[in-house]
Design brief:
Layout (H helix, E strand, L loop, with lengths): L7 E3 L7 E3 L11 E5 L10 E11 L5 E4 L7 E6 L8 H7 L7 E8 L5 E13 L7 E3 L9 E4 L5 E4 L10 E8 L9 E10 L4 E4 H4 L3 E4 L5 H7 L7 E6 L19 E10 L1
Antiparallel strand pairs: 1-2, 3-7, 4-5, 4-6, 4-8, 7-8, 9-12, 10-11, 12-16, 13-14, 13-15, 13-17, 16-17
């Protein structure tokens, strides 16, 4: 990736920078420059980073967007050599950074009336996604609920235990995690398996060999209501009645009017 010349930043590392350059200027797509070196911990392979961002019009220097004022960092980036998640160029850039580093990337956006801008990103935090639920086992799970057992890798199996379902949503911690509380507008990284009441499995991220990412604004209501308020690291047993699931319509392997049972490991949320 080509380096951007003529751009500087001042300010305390880890806080909103003041970015300077002569206007108008032009930028190439995917060009970049490190404006401020970080003074925190080194970014490690496989870590999720949260960045505060500013978009600056390179024609006149005006600020098009900023996440700093409302403190809404983007935590969707995992720094990884896995080419399915991050290009080699971006991996090589981010793996050499430390917390509080500020970088600028050139963008020419054909969907914004031809606007060209600098996307200025400051790495404000980092974390490593869990690989399975981690926390304290809950001992007082109601005896009439389905029984869950775990393999060594954390994959769940279930015994419906004669369970007939529920007319209301059940959201029961099986493991209580020690992470942050999940908000109903967040994106969640999870491992999960889903069954029908007769014990038929219809979906499992464990069988696919990779966790799943989804916005709680874009899933069935039973997931949105059932996972919000639980903590990262928790394993949650969800019993979702039809009106909070797929209702009176078939959905793939799920027949109409099905009560759904899920075991969900909350690995991260942002």
């Amino acid at each position: 990736m080509n380096q951007i010349a003529g751009v500087t930043a001042t300010g305390k590392p880890g806080e909103k920078p003041t970015v300077s350059f002569k206007t108008p200027m032009t930028v190439e797509d995917n060009s970049y420059v490190v404006l401020q070196k970080g003074n925190g911990d080194q970014i490690e392979d496989g870590e999720r980073i949260c960045t505060q961002g500013i978009a600056i019009n390179v024609k006149d220097g005006s600020e098009l967007m900023s996440t700093w004022e409302k403190n809404t960092p983007d935590c969707s980036t995992v720094v990884t050599s896995d080419a399915s998640q991050m290009t080699e160029d971006y991996y090589n850039i981010f793996k050499d950074q430390k917390l509080n580093a500020t970088l600028a990337f050139g963008v020419n956006d054909s969907n914004s009336a031809g606007t060209s801008y600098l996307m200025v990103l400051t790495i404000v935090s980092k974390s490593k996604d869990l690989t399975k639920a981690t926390g304290t086992k809950v001992l007082d799970v109601p005896a009439d609920l389905p029984k869950v057992t775990l393999a060594k890798d954390g994959k769940p199996s279930i015994d419906m235990n004669g369970y007939k379902g529920s007319d209301t949503l059940i959201s029961q911690d099986l493991i209580k995690g020690e992470g942050a509380e999940v908000k109903d507008t967040q994106t969640v990284i999870a491992h999960y398996t889903g069954w029908l009441l007769d014990g038929t499995q219809f979906d499992s991220s464990w069988d696919r060999g990779a966790s799943s990412s989804f916005s709680l604004d874009e899933v069935i209501t039973g997931w949105k209501q059932g996972l919000a308020g639980h903590t990262v690291g928790s394993q949650v047993l969800l019993v979702v009645p039809p009106d909070l699931g797929y209702g009176d319509k078939d959905s793939g392997k799920i027949p109409a009017n099905s009560t759904l049972v899920f075991v969900v490991d909350i690995l991260a949320a942002y």
